Amino acid sequence: MNPAARAEPVEDVEGDARWLSQHNRFVQECKDAEPDVLFVGDSMMQLMQQQEVWKELFSPLHVLNFGISGDTTCNVLWRLQNGELHNIRPKVVVVWVGTNNYQHTAEQVAGGVMEIVQLLVNQLQHTKVILMGLLPRGEKPNLLRQKNAEVNRLLQASVSRLKPVQFLDLSLGFVHSDGTILSRDMFDYLHLTASGYRRVAKTLHELLLQILEETPEEKQTPLP
């Protein structure tokens, strides 16, 4: 079995149960809210909610953000299998995870991400999925950056066979002609700055609006 596609909770090494507490809060939010858009992933997703651009572009769309820092594909898969999809039927789910799967190969990471996507497609049959490609990492070219690029290539090929899923790769704009990433875009050469998030959010927001916009035929269809 692909180790990156095995659902696992995060081990409580520190002893304060923070990860499980966040998961339990998300499960409770599913009971209290009716989101049109659900964001799921790791710190890249979690930190986006702290940006001003989140309030400007995404909050008005009736959203929930289920991002947890440090999560791998295994952790996100476990969370989705254990209550974070209960009682909600979002129109769109945005998935952004995989860069923390250090111990897995590119093929394994892509397989783990696709396991998450397939779960969403199977469980939320009328929901569209936006799969975010992994961003490059490290100031200069390195093996992890190469692996993330290979994951994106594999994901794009896999997603092309799933009609409800769109792949969004925003990685090209962050690597400059000399192969470097600037700290003004990623303050630690992994996580985005405010300006970096604004660049990602603008493109993502445009795609979300396209998907959320009802067609005339859908508006005329009576509710069952």
From TrEMBL:
Major subcellular location class: cytoplasm
Pfam family membership, one: Lipase_GDSL_2
Membrane-spanning ranges: none
Gene Ontology process terms (BP): lipid catabolic process
Cellular component annotations (GO), alphabetically ordered: cytoplasm
A molecular function GO annotation: 1-alkyl-2-acetylglycerophosphocholine esterase activity
Catalytic reaction list: a 1-O-alkyl-2-acetyl-sn-glycero-3-phosphocholine + H2O = a 1-O-alkyl-sn-glycero-3-phosphocholine + acetate + H(+); 1-O-hexadecyl-2-acetyl-sn-glycero-3-phosphoethanolamine + H2O = 1-O-hexadecyl-sn-glycero-3-phosphoethanolamine + acetate + H(+); 1-O-hexadecyl-2-acetyl-sn-glycero-3-phosphate + H2O = 1-O-hexadecyl-sn-glycero-3-phosphate + acetate + H(+); 1-O-hexadecyl-2-acetyl-sn-glycero-3-phosphocholine + H2O = 1-O-hexadecyl-sn-glycero-3-phosphocholine + acetate + H(+)
Entry-linked InterPro entries: SGNH_hydro, SGNH_hydro_sf
Family classification: Belongs to the 'GDSL' lipolytic enzyme family. Platelet-activating factor acetylhydrolase IB beta/gamma subunits subfamily.
Protein name according to UniProt: Platelet-activating factor acetylhydrolase IB subunit alpha2
Lineage start: Eukaryota, Metazoa, Chordata, Craniata, Vertebrata
